[in-house]
Design brief:
single chain; alpha+beta; Endonuclease III, domain 1; five-stranded antiparallel β-sheet; two-stranded antiparallel ribbon; 14% strand; globular; alkylated DNA binding
Length: 287
């Protein structure tokens, strides 16, 4: 069981930094124990692995299991935001300045492009609960038990996703369009060449941004096409909802840091009042 102790020059907050990787409250690849330790199962270039991360101030202790253990520990600083530069954000208004003061955070970088792509595709244009249900089913059905933490499941490698039969996608509640996108992407060797990502059929600006945020730690990858984000940004700056074009206009002064700003506004709790019906959770398993 490899162990790494790392002294970061800033207070590390694993629960806040790594929460972006959690896909719903019952994600089979992610959990937080009562003592605050974050556990995460991944399929690395070296194989499956499990990482457990705990921190106190800048003192970080991490343990890892499985063939991918060394890779996970080597990638630990980047995962916790060591390659991010929060000081690159220069607030020009009180809204962002106050959020940055109250909610300091660093952007994680997993380095695993395909692993970030699959749940992003499952989340395309559907309520989160619907996507999380599909993610959970597929990991429990096709992911292997996580090394050192058999209650977790390791997301399958691309070659396994490519072989999932149509009826299993149906049972997961993922319709054929999203299934075809994931199967096609499984053959694209995205981890070796992330530039292929926006060229893939079924992968648009929203999906590309969601992947770049998590896998590459891109501070400017704003999620254009998100159902809630324009309302959050509009409410923070104007106290009214805006569309994608309006959101981009409001974020333009922060070009280069637009994803960071959008996260800060969400952490600060900006959101328009809820009115009308929420998106209903569909169930393709009944079709």
């Amino acid at each position: 069981m490899p162990l790494r102790v790392w002294e970061a020059p800033w207070p590390v907050r694993p629960r806040r930094t790594l929460a972006v990787f959690r896909r719903g409250p019952h994600d089979p690849a992610y959990r937080v124990t009562p003592d605050g330790t974050v556990w995460r199962a991944s399929h690395t270039p070296e194989g499956p692995g499990t990482l457990a991360v705990a921190a106190s101030g800048g003192h970080v202790e991490a343990e890892a299991w499985g063939p991918g253990a060394d890779w996970l520990l080597e990638s630990l600083p980047a995962l916790l935001g060591a390659e991010d530069d929060p000081d690159a954000l220069v607030p020009i208004d009180d809204v962002v300045r106050d959020a940055a003061r109250r909610f300091p955070f660093r952007i994680a970088k997993s380095g695993l492009v395909f692993e970030a792509l699959v749940p992003a595709v499952l989340e395309q244009k559907v309520p989160g609960a619907e996507a999380w249900r599909a993610w959970g089913y597929l990991l429990r059905r096709f992911g292997e038990p996580a090394p050192g933490a058999p209650q977790l499941r390791v997301p399958p490698p691309p070659e396994v996703w490519a072989r999932i039969p149509s009826w299993e996608w149906h049972r997961a509640g993922a319709e054929a369009v999203r299934a075809r996108t994931i199967i096609g992407a499984s053959r694209a060797r995205l981890d070796a060449d992330p530039s292929r990502l926006p060229k893939l059929p079924g992968v648009g600006p929203w999906t590309t941004a969601e992947v770049r945020q998590r896998a590459l730690g891109d501070p400017d990858a704003v999620s254009v096409g998100d159902y809630n984000l324009p309302g959050i940004v509009g409410w923070a700056f104007l106290r009214r909802k805006v569309d994608d074009a309006g959101m981009l206009e409001l974020l333009e002064p922060y070009r280069g840091q637009r994803y960071r700003v959008s996260v800060l506004l969400q952490l600060a709790g900006y959101a328009p009042p809820r009115r009308g019906h929420r998106l209903s959770v569909r169930d393709y398993r009944r079709f």
